[in-house]
Amino acid sequence: MFVIIGIIVVFASVIGGYVLHHGNLHVLFQPTELLIIGGAAVGAFIIQSPANVLGIVVKNSMRVLSAKGPNKSQFLEVLGCLNAIFTKMRKEGLIAIEGDIENPQESPIFTKYPSILKNHHALDFICDNLKVIISANVTPFELENVMDLEMESHHHEAMIPSHSINKIADGLPALGIVAAVLGVVITMGKVSEPPEVLGASIGAALVGTFLGVLLSYGFVGPVGTHLEHIAEDDLLAFQVVKIALVSFVGGSAPQIAVEYARRVIPSGAKPSFTELEESLRA
Question: How far, in Å, CA of 67 to CA of 227, rounded?
């Protein structure tokens, strides 16, 4: 929703200011220059991206319109789920959760927390590391190292769309110059025309530079930055899970382990100590 609002604000500000200066909107309508810039940008993106990267970028770019960012209720679900798992492990033994982590979709614990089941990356991260805990006498230090490596790998993949989009944004002003130069080349063939024809042709050529800069800094660049924020937000859930698991393996009680994890949540989405306590009781 906010992305659409931002697009409207950019268009309204740029076009509105141009009209208030008595600009001719007809001059800005240059579909051929937009074709040159957009087509060259898409082609450059295809050239720079292997097939797997193309799939990742296309799939994740759609999240710009749907991603809402983490909120307090989602983190309460993560902490509540971890507390329930830790409590069962403490009361019934480590092996008691084997059925839950082998088939979380049918687990009476995980099915209480639908946001975790929807986030398959976080779900796999929880289950895989719990399998390590119950199958080996792993130390907190070893577990933390393994999880850090996995988080680094996941974050690297999650940042691919942002990096790819930002590279295209960096090249758009230059592609706008390409379109403008081609417009000047066309204009040079009209040197025998009257001044009003030459002026219109030169103005149309300069629209290419305008479009390249506007697309880069007004639309494509911000989309790349938005994707970077989404990747950073996704990493928060992994960080919370890591702190809780390491604390529990280190000997902390279930509620203390999730309290340590609560403290790494950013302030905008962090539940208070009382809210967490009430949620765990419920």
Answer: 9
For residues 10 and 212, give the distance between their C-alpha atoms in angstroms, rounded to a whole number: 15
Are 224 and 162 a contacting pair, CB within 8 Å? Answer: yes
The residue among 242, 239, 243 whose CA lies nearest residue 231 is 239
The residue extents of the domains of the chain are 29-282
User: Could you tell me the pTM of the whole model?
Assistant: 0.83
Residue with tokens 């990493």: 235
Question: Do 206 and 177 touch, CB atoms closer than 8 A?
Answer: no
Q: How big is the chain by its Cα radius of gyration, in Å?
A: 27
For 133-186, the pLDDT digits (tens) are 888 888 889 989 999 999 999 899 889 999 999 999 999 999 999 999 998 888
Per-residue three-class SS string for the chain: CHHHHHHHHHHHHHHHHHHHCCCCHHHHCCHHHHHHHHHHHHHHHHHHCCHHHHHHHHHHHCHHHHCCCCCHHHHHHHHHHHHHHHHHHHHHCHHHHHHHHHCHHHCCCHHHCHHHHHCHHHHHHHHHHHHHHHHCCCCHHHHHHHHHHHHHHHHHHHCHHHHHHHHHHHHHHHHHHHHHHHHHHHHHCCCCCCHHHHHHHHHHHHHHHHHHHHHHHHHHHHHHHHHHHHHHHHHHHHHHHHHHHHHHHCCCCHHHHHHHHHCCCCCCCCCCHHHHHHHHHC
Tens of pLDDT, residues 32-85: 999 999 999 999 999 998 888 888 888 887 778 776 777 888 899 999 999 999
Closest CA to 14 of 225, 201, 222, 211: 211
Which residue's entry shows tokens 């507390």?
83
Q: Measured between alpha carbons, how far is 235 from 8 in angstroms, rounded to an integer?
A: 30
Q: Phi, psi at residue 191, to the nearest 5°?
A: -60, -20
